Amino acid sequence: MELSASQAAKKVGKSVPTITRAIKKGKLTAKPRDGGGWVIDASELFRVWPAVSNDTDATLPVLRNETPIETSALEHEVELLREMLDDTKADRDSWKEQAQKITALIEDQSARKKGFWARLLGS
Fold it and tell me: pLDDT tier at 89 (50, 70, 90 boundaries)?
C-alpha cells in the first residue's frame, strides 16, 4: 500500500515535517511524486516507526469540576509574571522617553552650533 506523507504521518502519529525530514536524511525511503510530495510504501514506513492504534474507545480523562491544587499556584505565578511584565514595560517606556529627550537635545545643539565664520559674519 502506498501512502502520501500526510497519510503516513497519521498512521504513525508523527507530523508531516518529521516524515519529510526522515526522507531527506535517508532514514525513510520514498519516491518523489510528479506533482510534488512523496509516495511512501507502508512496509517501509512501519519499518522505521510502529503504527499507532486507532482505538476510538480509548479516551483521555477529562477534568470536570475537580480543580487540581496546582491550579491556584499556577494562577498565582501567572499573576506575578504579569506584574513583572508590566514593570518591565514601564521601565522600557521610561528609558525610551529618556533616550528621545537626549536625542532631541543633541539634535538641537548640533543645529545651534555655528562655525567661526558664521558667528563672525552673523549668519
Answer: very high
Q: Which option is the CATH number for 2-48: 3.40.630.30, 1.10.1660.10, 2.60.40.10, 3.20.20.105?
A: 1.10.1660.10
The mean pLDDT value for 74-98 works out to 92
Q: Which of 86, 8, 62 is nearest to 17 (CA)?
A: 8
Tens digit of each residue's pLDDT (9 = 90 or more) over 23-43: 999 999 999 888 888 899 999
The DSSP string of 56-77 is SS-------S---HHHHHHHHH
